[in-house]
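Researcher: Here's a chain I'd like modeled. Treat it as a single chain, no partners, no ligands.
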Amino acid sequence: MSPLDPTDVPALLAYDRAHVWHPYTSMTDPSPVRVVESAAGVRLRLAGGQEVVDGMASWWSAVHGYAVPELDAALADQAGRMSHVMFGGLTHAPAVRLAERLVSISPDGLEHVFLADSGSVSVEVALKMALQAQRGRGRPGRSRMLTVRGGYHGDTAGCMAVCDPEGGMHSMFAGVLPQQVFADRPPAATATDAEVESWAAGVRRLAEEHAHELAGIVVEPLLQGAGGMWTYPPACLRVLREVADEHDLVLVLDEVATGLGRTGTMFACEAAGVVPDVLCLGKALTGGYLTLAAVLCTSRVAHDLSASESGVLMHGPTFMGNPLACAVALASLELLETRGWAADVARVSDGLAAGLAPLRDAAGVVDVRVLGAVGAVQLDHAVDVPRATQAALDAGVWLRPFRDLVYVMPPYVTSQADVALVCGGVAEAVTVA
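Model: Modeled as a single isolated chain. Structure tokens:
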């Protein structure tokens, strides 16, 4: 069999359709895909020459856009030195320097860093940290997690168990996964103090009832991502911190999607003045160049899990601390600081708020939500994804709607004019969805 010609687009698409699985797609009846030839700035160049603004930042990771000179240089320089080396028994400057940078920018008290290889794996590691910490505290019976409905934490088994068991994407596996404890979804970001307190009372009751078997609490702070782009008040995070302290639970905040500026503060938990016991980061960490995640924890968690019967954290991926990924992550964090990420996110946020506001009155629209560089339009019906995607492409924008949502998470560097273009693409998608 002769190799495929990379310029033969029909042949590529035909082989892709017959043999290549895509995320959440049927193999026997796959959704349509487009061939991307290149990417630069905030634009993807599709086969045939059309260029479209990427409203998704490659699933929220390419915060600096594409073909970024500083990230290209960091990757090339590290590749010339060492692309990979096992992390068991060895270490290297990119990993150590990245850990140093993460500790310096993260909330005070998070002192120890585990470098994982994806967002889902970072949550798996965090769950293990909570379970092992409780074993180290002499409470092996504390093996369940408290979380909230509407959450999404990844596709691996442990992560699926703490995703929404009924309305989430993994509901079909609910019967074979560990049974966790689920509180109600937090109220909307516009909730009154009374609504927040009503929700808090339910969480407190649930925690009190199950405290003897709970190891920790795990939630996405302020924004539930793939569970529905749901935003909720910072006060809810403070309640969860209080509940964790009251019952000596490990508070895990999954900031794989929200961390590193996406919601308007460097970490979403900062908006609530809350410091977790364990923090998960991913997606934007390498600016979308390579897969890498990080789990940060307090000294107490590190000490307690080390006192468990194994004496060590029971996890060790083959590509842990990959030098290429660590080097580009360092360059990405440097760019966030030097380019002024906060001003960029504020500009994008203002543009999304102005550009999506008119859709509040559009037919079929239930809600419009904006938080930092995140915008979501919720409909009263499931989106016709192929039609909505094509409508956005016709408007010069790449979007990936899901469920009842047409949403955007563009690169932070997206200009005011391109944010307006993205909003126009959302409007066209909503019209046909």
